[in-house]
Amino acid sequence: MRYIKDYATGEYEEKKSRFIGEIFPIKSEEEAQEHIAAIRKKYYDARHHCYAYVLGDNYETIKQSDDGEPSQTAGMPILNVLKGQEIHDALIVVTRYFGGTLLGTGGLVRSYTNASKAAIDNAVVMEAVEGFRASAEIPYTLVGKIKYFTETEGITEAEAEYGNNVNMTWLVPQDKLSSFQNQIQEMSGGSISLAIEKHRWYNA
């Protein structure tokens, strides 16, 4: 699954019609509506503010609006971009300034699609990783070996607190948990106790 880190914007122009795409990370429908209202205010003189948003790991909430454009020519293309790029918990609003020439349904679909893609292209997109947060107290004699192993395996060290021993925390992808546990036990002769909890994190 993919998520947007911060607000971003991009533009597309066709036959002097200007399409301003803006994307926002959102956590609720209320937040989406607040952004839409703010954009209507910001571009008060524009003809259309079409949008789509998606919420939830399985797209439990989906909403799209053509805002006066012909049916299926604006909101649905925006939604298709979000879903096509597997982006979750995001809102895209495309504001149109009419350029004087009618674009037809094909031109509208293309323009709203391209403006949406332009906003995403300028955004920082993060990949969600499903896995585990694993912690343990490590004697100094094993720290070097464990660091080498985790770096080789692509397991991220999240924290390390140095005291009498080293309290270390790692982010372990789901498919690497079993080998990680086995290797830690093997290195320590079974003397290290791992605390493991389900965790999701994001890689930009």
Question: Can you describe this structure?
Answer:
By secondary structure, the protein is an alpha+beta fold. It has 2 domains: 2-123, Ribosomal Protein S5, domain 2 (2-Layer Sandwich), CATH 3.30.230.30; 129-203, 2-Layer Sandwich (Alpha-Beta Plaits). It is built from 5 helices and 10 strands, in the order E-E-E-H-E-E-H-E-H-E-H-E-E-H-E. The strands form 2 sheets. Strands 1, 7, 8, 9 and 10 form a 5-stranded antiparallel sheet that branches. Helix 2 packs across helix 3.
In total, how many domains does the architecture comprise?
A: 2
How far do the termini sit from each other? Answer: 12 Å
User: What is the approximate shape?
Assistant: elongated
The string of secondary-structure elements, in order, is EEEHEEHEHEHEEHE
Number of helices: 5
Mean pLDDT equals: 93
Which fold name fills CATH's third level, the topology of the largest domain?
A: Ribosomal Protein S5, domain 2
Radius of gyration: 24 Å
CATH architectural name of the largest domain: 2-Layer Sandwich
Strand content: 35-45%
Which CATH top level class of the largest domain fits? Alpha Beta
What can be said about this structure in brief?
With 204 residues, the chain is of the alpha+beta class. The chain has five helices and ten strands; from the N terminus they run βββαββαβαβαββαβ.
